[in-house]
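AraC family transcriptional regulator
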Amino acid sequence: MKQQTIPTLKSDAYHKTYFKHDVPAPLAASDQRHFEIHHRCALPDVINAHRLDFYMLFMVVQGEGIHTFGTKEYYIRENMLCFVAPHMVQSWRAEKKDQKGYFVGFSETFFHEGFENKHFLQELPFFQLNGNAVLALTEAQTQYYLTQLRFMHEEFLHATTHSPQILRSQLQLLIHKAHAQALEQGHAFDTAHAAGIRLVKSFKELYLHDFRALGDGTGLALKKIAVYADTLGVSQNHLNDTVKSITGKSAGQLIREHLANHATMCLLHADKSISEIAYALGFEDPSYFARFYKSQTGKSPSEFRVSENL
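Predicted structure tokens:
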């Protein structure tokens, strides 16, 4: 069997893979002095395994997904700062449709200009092959980094002859702050996060399997969270706590969101009445289905169909 080659995406050619829309050009055309920052980037749902030839850091403002860095897998969501070293194998799979945030790409030459230690970036723990590529942030820390990123983005969009040095200083400040924070945290987050991701993935596989009944034309019969927890060999509290720590939502919230998404698809595409859709989705009372749908989407099923001219 022929082994698939993992491509290396260069700084002047990766945009088509990473973004659904056009983005401003990097500050310098030369790969050696490359810098760029983008806001509200709409990432594709899937980016297959690849490498970059430059450094990257990003923060998700909206959305979530599973990002693989080297041999480690992380569930990425709000309040996380992520780091990718050049030539590290990575991939991305979105867990939500809309993905927005800040993205910074830069070369080692750009960062180290005027810097005495030319190996500084290579020595940082979050740029190591087996290091922790994700820094979990408090709300206050998130606001600090978002403020720095906004300043950088504004400077990038209105660049002058002095902007490269200003952006370099801002980038160095951000990296130094993240390094200090990483040392304080000691990265105890890493092992627990990896185990949590495995449990969340197993939980999702269980309830998604139950949703397949809709494709078979049979009614949906979701189990209680306690039953899923028992199948996974953990307590209901442990499952809820783990899902909450990884995704920011309870186990029940994940299922309700998925159920509401299925309901929306049925309302859009199924040639059925609202009552028929309610029964197919496991609701014994169509009025309860209407209340559930409105609590999840802000509109009742009938209001949604009217808004879509259905």
